[in-house]
Structure prediction request, 200 residues.
Amino acid sequence: MFTGIIAAIGRVTAIESIGADRRYRIDAGALDLADVSDGDSIAVGGCCLTALDIADGQFSADVSVETLRLTTLGDAVVGDQVNLEKALRLADRLGGHLVSGHIDETGKVIAINHDARSQRWTFEVPQRIAKYIAQKGSVCIDGVSLTVNEVDGARFGVNLIPHTQIVTTFGERRVGDSVNIEVDLIARYAERLASAGSET
Prediction:
């Protein structure tokens, strides 16, 4: 589990194809890997990956066909920046919201507008997951926990304060870019429970 509070911006330093899968090498940047062991989870752009071969401030991670298909990692190239967060410990503050690191779909940046010192971003997501996104609810975009300001069909808006623009990869994003979307866990389970009740 994660919180959606980004700890550092990393960078893809190598990509190796292994059959249909890929192995990524990530420079962890300012993320302290001293307490990370092989097999620990790190969220990379919001995707929960297993850290391997940790050395010299870098780690590797195997990415399955499913993850390549469903996330922006499938289009990643060497040099790309990625948001990083180590797995949540029970003693940690939950500054964002509970995030699993399991991406539902990719969405698209539709608009970026200035709002005083903040920015208002509009995203569009596939209709299949639009129903899980609610005004004033939580959503995770590229691993960042954000509050939904407004919803209009398959589009929704969020507000990015200056700090978020600086410490995440949003500073590199542009209109038209694809982003990883993870909807709120509670919304997902609530729907499942409701549908299960209707079947009995």
